[in-house]
Amino acid sequence: MVTAVHSFGARLRTIRRAAGALKLGGKTRLYLPMTLRTRSDAKAKGNAPRKAYDRSAVMRAVKSRDTAPERAVRAMLRNIAQGYRLHRADLPGKPDIVYGPRKLAIFVHGCFWHGHDCPRGARMPKANADYWRAKIARNRARDEKTLAAYAAIGWRVLVVHECELKAPVALQARLAAAVGR
Fold first, then answer.
1. Which of 31, 127, 141, 163 is 20 to 30 A (C-alpha) from 113?
2. Domain 68-179 of CATH type 3.30.930.10
3. What is the pLDDT of residues 18-59, one digit of tens each?
């Protein structure tokens, strides 16, 4: 049986039809709806119900392991020294990368989530600001507690924030110094 070969344009049109297209600034952006819900207040005013993203679905999509910054740091470490382990649960805070014989734990932190003092980490959401301020404060307190636990057991800790990936040469030198090569 012969199957038809579809062009890229035909596949793109199919995706646009299935997912929906959004015009922003003259460019068409594709969006794939997550869990959609309608606003009851829009119905009360007689307007058509507006579809909005479900915040829970968005937050569930945030990954805790194998993130893009973490993969970038691992790629740098492969060139420096191999032999690391990932996400060891027997260590405090479950570090992203571990060099066991060298007693080195490496954490790759997102600037926003861990309240880094860079422009991205210092920016607070305007919606539900009290919740986010408390959430990031709890994350920072947990990070300090984890670092103290490593000092108590005699391990070295290296914290890499995602903004440091913008200067890969400096980060690679820092990783090499930490690993001991």
1. 31
2. no
3. 555 444 555 555 454 444 444 454 455 555 555 566 777 777
Q: How far, in Å, CA of 179 to CA of 98, rounded? A: 10
37-44 contact pairs (CB < 8 A, 24+): none
Of the candidates 132, 120, 123, the residue with the CA atom closest to the CA atom of residue 164 = 120
CB of 165 closer than 8 Å to CB of 76: no
> What's the Rg (C-alpha) of the chain?
22
State the greatest distance between any 2 C-alpha atoms of the chain, in Å, as a whole number: 68
- The span from the CA of 69 to the CA of 73, in Å, is 6
Q: What pTM was estimated for this model as a whole?
A: 0.67
Closest CA to 34 of 11, 16, 65, 55: 55
In angstroms, rounded to a whole number, what is the distance separating the alpha carbons of residues 175 and 102? 13
Sorted by where each begins, the domain ranges of the chain are: 8-60, 68-179
In single-letter form, the type of residue at position 87 comes to H
